[in-house]
Amino acid sequence: MSEGKIRTETHDRIFKIIIDNPAKKNAFSPAMMEQLSDALTELHNNDSYWVGVICAEGKDFTAGLDMPKFFGPTAEKRNIREGNVDVFGLGKRCKKPIVSAVQGIVFTIGIELMLAGDIVVAADDSRFCQMESKRGIAPLGGAHFRFLSRTGWGNAMYHLFLCDEFTASRAREIGLIQEVVPAGQQIERAMALAAIIARNAPLGIQVTKEAALKYVEHGEKAAIAYIPTVRERVLNSADAKEGIQSFIERRAAVFQGR
């Protein structure tokens, strides 16, 4: 059996990150975690990439961790590079917008990975479960607060306490995901959304994400105080000038990311 890995592809301004371990339901090894962190760091640092898409090979997004490789006598060493993006967005978070496409089994860290991004497209056969407490542990990748921020207290506690499996339609109903599409179309739809995002000014998109995170992390006062930074970052940019000129000339803007 071949070892699982993280693959990447470049599609114009879109950096596609692919979880590739379908023989084991895309379960993550420590090496795959390192590779995903490296890929997210490349997306973060490379000015050629304006949007990221995270998706997976096979019928399932991920069944979670390959547990023996993380815990116990056969555990493998993890070597995340200093300064890298945290795959769960608990430390350094990717500044670029990320669209995740999920399908089939989306358990434990699968939910936490998609919630560390920004937009989620789910196949209608997706099955979600944050089941750690059924195994005597608890979520460690951010589910305890990102469920809350996405779905509200009652919905978050309902699924975190029950550790139940729920459908894509339920996930959409409570706001955990944004779109449901027929199985097999989730990656195509995520790429289409990424292409729409990539037609917008990347500086504007990135600073919007930064400003939104200011609110999430520090509240409304901090978000308001950040507005002058937003203004300075975008109003003096070449892309702002292009946006105004394209409006005057009644044509689509062509942004350069500067």
Q: Overview of this structure, please?
A:
This protein has 258 residues and is an alpha/beta fold. It has two domains: 5-198, Alpha-Beta Complex (2-enoyl-CoA Hydratase, Chain A, domain 1); 202-249, Lyase 2-enoyl-coa Hydratase, Chain  A, domain 2 (Orthogonal Bundle), CATH 1.10.12. Helix content is 41%, strand content 16%. It has ten helices and nine strands. The protein has helices at residues 30-45, 109-116, 143-151, 153-162, 168-174, 186-198, 202-218, 220-225, 227-235, 238-249, and strands at residues 5-11, 14-20, 51-56, 98-102, 105-107, 119-123, 127-129, 166-167, 179-181. It has a six-stranded mixed sheet, sandwiched between helices. β1 and β2 form a beta hairpin. α3 (143-151) crosses α4 (153-162) and α7 (202-218) runs antiparallel to α9. The longest helix is centred in the last third of the chain and has 17 residues, at 202-218. The N and C termini lie far apart (46 Å). The model has no long low-confidence stretch (mean pLDDT 92).
Helix/strand layout:
Elements: E1 5-11, E2 14-20, H1 30-45, E3 51-56, E4 98-102, E5 105-107, H2 109-116, E6 119-123, E7 127-129, H3 143-151, H4 153-162, E8 166-167, H5 168-174, E9 179-181, H6 186-198, H7 202-218, H8 220-225, H9 227-235, H10 238-249
Helix pairs in contact: 3-4, 7-9
